[in-house]
Design goal:
Strand content: 5-15%
Number of strands: 9
Distance between the termini: 132 Å
CATH architecture: Alpha-Beta Barrel
Helix content: 25-40%
CATH class: Alpha Beta
Radius of gyration: 35 Å
Order of helices and strands: HEHEHEHEHEHEEHEHE
Number of domains: 1
Largest sheet: 9 strands, parallel
CATH superfamily: Glycoside hydrolase/deacetylase
Amino acid sequence: MSRRGRRPSPATVFFALLSLALGIALFVKTRPPVPPAPVPREPLRPSPTRGRPLVPATPKRPAPAPAGKPVPTAPAGSGTPRVAIVIDDLGNELAPAARIAGWKAPVAGAVLPDLRWSAASAEALARGGHEVLLHLPMEPTGYPRVRPGPGLVLRSQSDAEIERLLEEDLATVPGAVGVNNHMGSAATADARVMRAVSRVLSRRGLFFLDSRTTDATVAEKTAEENSVRAASRRVFLDDVASDEAIRRQLDELVRRAEQEGFAIAIGHPYPVTLFVLERELPGLSERGVRLVKVSELVR
């Protein structure tokens, strides 16, 4: 038989397969490891803003302090100028009052009467340790074209009507420690109207903060003449509701306090106003003023 027709022996086949298996095993053992496939990562989400508006911080200004961070106060002393801040026009919705209620800064809230969220806003502020004022609608010069809202005190009302109306308004804003006027450029210039208001405040032991919507106001003077503690607003924070304008008004508040010993500012629950206050209030003590409750500044 020729060599071409001979088959390999079983031993030859066995050793050939064994050699092949050993070669494959050696290759697998010595080849470089294949890196694992990357695991997909969950996209990063922005951290919660605690209800703050997405207003970009002005360059070189300090970052906003968390709403719950304590606001440092300057050491108490007779020479330390004091400031107080009141946020008006609360009660149309609950969110602004709830936001302020979470602040450690002693900012007061003035709540409009007889609105859907009046009582809830007042209660939220009080639970947070903030002073509550009744933001009393009073007749403006442009009435009836300009209408301040329900619970309105008018010059055409009798003394008895004014007193009854004020009592009813106070019942819708529980826990109020004082009153300030909403609009009222006509009513606060009327001594008779203010005497009727003062009688209720005197009986209840409440103070009056004159928002000073007119230079002709007699509100603070009349209140004091009727043994009611009173004070007047010195600065409006947000007649122009922009970051830069509100910061300028805070500067003016500090300047007034340095000149007069104390000063009261009024703002509104605009998102930008609340944002700027959250950012700026922690730095007030570094400017040499002490933020206090508004009741500490009434005479």
